[in-house]
């Protein structure tokens, strides 16, 4: 495929091949010339720390020329559309675009309008998809638990409704054959659009944690939320915050993941976020490796 928009249509074999290549990069190998002479632009219409910087580093490690577009300091502020922006940068010879946008489907629309030789990677659109986050989460799980997911119990907790990360994680977990996928959160933050198909859904975090091998916490996305969905942050923390005491209900070697940025003291306590079971910073490091694998697959050997 020319683009990476989501994981919903990615065959398991392709996902596994990308994860194996990412593992090779995570072990310190490189491919310094893979994208030599190719220009890539990170085109972000929403804020980012991890995704943007790790894509930049990934592209540099593959030998690409990297441009960084920041909507807030660009001609977008004069009314230029996202499509005109893409076409303008394409006209400079850029062939890879890493795009984040607040609207569902905006990245797919740009990909559909891009020139035939251009590759577009979704770096997060609206609530829809964040495919490289899904892949880096699967790499983190594989490193901790091995490549066979069939015996794994994985729990996703929190604001699934507004989470593109959760949607991509759930697609990936299903594709890779996770043994049991549990989802827990307040009813108002659980989607009823088919996202949770095949998942065991619960509103009781203490029960949902019992015996799980991995806990994937989600950020409470207050910027995407209508008023009233959550009573108060204190109530949310009481019912859905991951504490050391709660985590003790999971398997003893369970890992804790969070895509970041974290609301410390809301969905996760400092003790858990910084504790021995946390893989939060491993996830960040894996982001570089996964993004190297994705950029190489889409833009290498042309
Ligand atoms: N996980 C994630 O997408 O983080 P950023 O918003 O910082 O890129």
UniProtKB/TrEMBL annotation:
Chain's role: Catalyzes the condensation of carbamoyl phosphate and aspartate to form carbamoyl aspartate and inorganic phosphate, the committed step in the de novo pyrimidine nucleotide biosynthesis pathway.
Enzyme class: transferase
NCBIfam families: asp_carb_tr, PRK00856.1
Domain Aspartate/ornithine carbamoyltransferase Asp/Orn-binding: 151-297
GO MF annotation: an example: amino acid binding
Pathway field: Pyrimidine metabolism; UMP biosynthesis via de novo pathway; (S)-dihydroorotate from bicarbonate: step 2/3
PROSITE patterns: CARBAMOYLTRANSFERASE (PS00097)
UniProt KW Transferase keyword: yes
Transferase recorded as keyword: yes
Name this polypeptide is given: Aspartate carbamoyltransferase
Phylogenetic placement of the source organism: Bacteria, Pseudomonadati, Pseudomonadota, Gammaproteobacteria, Lysobacterales
